[in-house]
Amino acid sequence: MSEKKMLQGIASILEETLPEDWSKVVFYAEYAEGAFSIEYYVAGSGKDDFVKCFDQKGVSRASLMKN
User: Fold this and answer.
1) What domain count does the chain have?
2) With bands split at pLDDT 50, 70 and 90, how would you rate the model's confidence at 57?
3) What is the CATH number of the domain that holds 10?
4) Beta strands 51-52 and 22-32: pairing type?
5) Contact present, 18 and 28 (Cβ < 8 Å)
6) pTM of the prediction?
7) What is the distance between the alpha carbons of residues 35 and 31, in angstroms, rounded to a whole number?
8) Range of the domain at 15
9) For residues 23 and 39, what is the distance between their CA atoms, to the nearest angstrom?
């Protein structure tokens, strides 16, 4: 898979869980053979405080893990 396609896929998944008023997203991924770790941080409109993906209000850990 090309890097561009991978990033487009990630963006489409993030769209499902980002709050409506989001303005900034920081995406962090680690990949090694046979293992990976992914998380993101989001800031709302007019805010500079970032919230970790698993701490977002109204988004369950189960839905994030499923995606």
Assistant:
1) 1
2) confident
3) 3.30.500.20
4) unpaired
5) no
6) 0.71
7) 6
8) 3-66
9) 17
